[in-house]
Amino acid sequence: MEHSDFRALFGLSAFSEEEALRIYVQRQFSRIVAHGVDYDVAQRVVGRITAFDKWAPEWAGEGGYWEAIAVKARRRGHRTTAMNAFFLASSCYRVAQHILHDDAAKMACYPKVVSLFETAGKLMSPPLERVSIRSSYGPLHAYLSVPAGRGRLPAVILAGGADGWREEYLPITLIFLERGFAVLNVDAPGQGAARLFRKTAMPVDVERFFSAAVDFLLKTPRIHPQQIFMLGHSVGGYLTLRTAAADRRLAACAALGAPFELLSIFDASPPARRINFSLLCGAREPEQGREILRQFTLEGLLNRISCPVLIIHGMKDSVVPFSHVERICSEVRSSVDLRTFEHGIHTCDNYVGEVYPLIADRFLDYAGGSRRRMTRRIANEVPA
Amino acid sequence: MEHSDFRALFGLSAFSEEEALRIYVQRQFSRIVAHGVDYDVAQRVVGRITAFDKWAPEWAGEGGYWEAIAVKARRRGHRTTAMNAFFLASSCYRVAQHILHDDAAKMACYPKVVSLFETAGKLMSPPLERVSIRSSYGPLHAYLSVPAGRGRLPAVILAGGADGWREEYLPITLIFLERGFAVLNVDAPGQGAARLFRKTAMPVDVERFFSAAVDFLLKTPRIHPQQIFMLGHSVGGYLTLRTAAADRRLAACAALGAPFELLSIFDASPPARRINFSLLCGAREPEQGREILRQFTLEGLLNRISCPVLIIHGMKDSVVPFSHVERICSEVRSSVDLRTFEHGIHTCDNYVGEVYPLIADRFLDYAGGSRRRMTRRIANEVPA
Predict the structure, then answer these.
(1) Superfamily the domain A1-123 falls into
(2) Are B336 and B237 in contact (CB under 8 A)?
């Protein structure tokens, strides 16, 4: 299949171009707005898109518009405006490349996503720093932000899905930052910049990479070693649960729209998602991807999780059926808290204002709990 | 006319209830999102509204939902979540009452708008304080927020329109706060809480009230006396220009979607806006309102303005024609900067992410300019 036959890619061949595009926009809109594009900006850009092949150029054009505003604001010393406009420019280029599959057009767009994001990150206070996670997969870049001040902080690792990567999670990062968390935003091998620029593929035992991320946080000043959390979306939720099963240093974890295994999701998916899944695990063709994906399952792992688990699921999730969640909840032996949203779409992208504060606050409760446990432990060491 | 005949009120009698509601939602949506309701929350609520008489109860219901989340979060010590949820709850009640005209249903809703907003404001850091502006119209309440730290700050007075009041401008307030401004958010006589709870009407020479607001700021610690700015929307833009003409203490001012006079706007308006304008100036009936409004004009005033003026206008403004802006620009003798947005609706509600940073940064430039002038003046006092 040509990667330019968008109606076929999205399983919308039965519709006219216009109708297929309308459906695609409707599916993507909440995610676009949730992850950093102002409603009105998104509305204007999609209003200009009259065919699928205009998606990438129109979004990239909007990215250029905001980049120009950002550059001008920075030159005039308007730091906040420059920072926001650089982030928005990065987001527009991210939405532009989202529709493409590792071809030349995507590779032309993605460096903009990263460089504009990093430029914006430097203007944040405290800055969003580019850091390097050393692991057996080679050094992979991540973003770290640590709130200013003194005292040890809880930290959260954010893991993205098959096509949602580091730069997409800035709004989530901000929700955690304003609640006093340090945030580490990573692309695992096979994801985002780690795949496109480092040519990595996701291994079955990818939890080793996330353990390296935990190692990194434990070496980061001011991070409380007993308050490291992890949160993942979609495939990132699967990664989070794998990591929690393998690494007892997580204080708690949360997964949104997480699958139990990837094969059945792959089989039920339109070509675009099959391609994403295949690229993720290093396969050039979906047939090969399907074979590799057989191994991507939580089977036999979840009973090893010892930390509290928060599962969030939208009951209108058209990607991951609720049966996956039921299986996850039934196999985890530690404390599991399931919160469903009746009108929630995949990864509850239409509930960001409710879901992320809920997760961050829950993690803070756990952190408080571990502090209380610590206090007890210390008290026990004092002779009565 | 019954205030419950919404199609007639909005000039949509030619349409079915369903179609009229769709048009109304489309007109209001950007404003609702721009002024504090998450896109997805707004989308869900309007999705539940099947007829005009469901507007107020559905929005109030959503307000109650967020109030419950806020109260629970506050009880658990989750301050940021509580603050945001109280603000969102207030916004939902504000959108609920917006469709109503000073009747019992509105009076039942509005205290929630104010009390939830004030509760949220107390959780902000620095807090959004309720303060009292003393003037010949009696003491009227306003919101003041002064960024923490040391040093003298620029300040901005925000003025709302015929039906957009203090509590609506929180997102704008935040844009100024993060750029280091103190913000004073007022309801003039005849607007919002000042009308509904204090039974005031807007006098023709309402600039006296805003001068009292300037007096208040000059008595507020840390406000730089030569860096007081004013910004107004729609009728608030008219108020801003009146004030700038009468009070030379403004360092600069900005008006969005500002009319030159109100009579022609009144005459071209559907009944809902005629009622709003009439209530504003204390008339019980539109016929009486129309007579009073004849006096609401900038004629003969604008040549008295001595500070720089920034005019912003959306070229798709269906309330205030561009001819008003042309007349304003031609009569102001001081520096006028006009910035138009080709796709901008009334008061550029669909460009908030671009317009308010632009205004705040421009004011900062003026503040820098006045600092430079001050430096020169001080330098002159030092004998050479």
Answers:
(1) acylaminoacyl peptidase (1.20.1440.110)
(2) no
**Torsion over CA: B237, B145, B82, B93 (sign):** negative
Per-domain boundaries in chain B: 1-123, 127-261+297-384
Shortest Cα–Cα distance, A304 to chain B (Å): 30
Cβ A43–B350 below 8 Å, yes or no?
Answer: yes
Identify the H or E element spanning A254: strand A252-256
Q: What does DSSP say about strands B153-159 and A309-314: parallel, antiparallel, or unpaired?
A: unpaired
The string of pLDDT tens digits covering residues B157-189 is 999 999 888 999 999 999 999 999 999 999 999
Tokens of A23: 């459906």
- For domain A126-261+297-384, the question of CATH label 1.20.910.10 is answered with no
pLDDT for res B2: 65
Taking the C-alpha atoms of residue A346 and residue A249, their distance in angstroms, rounded to an integer, is: 28
B330, B263 contact by CB (below 8 A)? no
Q: How many CB atoms lie within 10 A of CB B384?
A: 4
**Residue B287 burial by Cβ neighbours in a 10 Å radius (0-12, 13-18, 19+):** exposed
Cα distance from B343 to chain A (closest Cα, Å)? 9
- Per-residue pLDDT tens digits for A6-51: 999 999 999 999 999 999 999 999 999 999 999 999 999 999 999 9
| Radius of gyration in angstroms for the set of CA atoms belonging to chain A, rounded to a whole number | 21
- Which tokens belong to B186? 């007022």
Which residue out of B65, B79, B81 would a mutagenesis test of the A interface target, given it has the greatest number of A Cβ atoms within 10 Å?
A: B81
Alpha carbons A329 and B91: distance in angstroms, whole number:
37
User: What residues in B contact A352, CB-CB < 8 Å?
Assistant: 38, 40
DSSP output for B220-263: STTEEEEEEEEEEETHHHHHHHHHHHH-TT-SEEEEES--SBSH
Q: Which helix (H) or strand (E) holds B17?
A: helix B17-34
CA dihedral A202, A206, A210, A215 (to 10 degrees): -120
Task: State the Cα torsion B315-B320-B323-B328 to the nearest 10°.
Answer: -110
Q: How far apart are CA A66 and CA A62, in angstroms?
A: 6
The CATH classification of domain B127-261+297-384, taken from the options 3.40.50.1820, 3.20.20.450, 3.40.390.10, 3.30.390.10: 3.40.50.1820
Chain B residues whose beta carbon lies within 8 Å of the beta carbon of residue A360 = 81
H or E segment at B360? helix B352-381
Query: pLDDT tens digits for A329-347?
Result: 999 999 999 999 999 999 9
> Taking 70 as the threshold, does the pLDDT of residue B382 lie above it?
no
**Residue A380 confidence (pLDDT) above 50:** no
CA-CA distance, A346 to A350, in Å (whole number)?
Answer: 9
- Nearest-by-Cβ selection for B73 from A43, A88, A361: A361
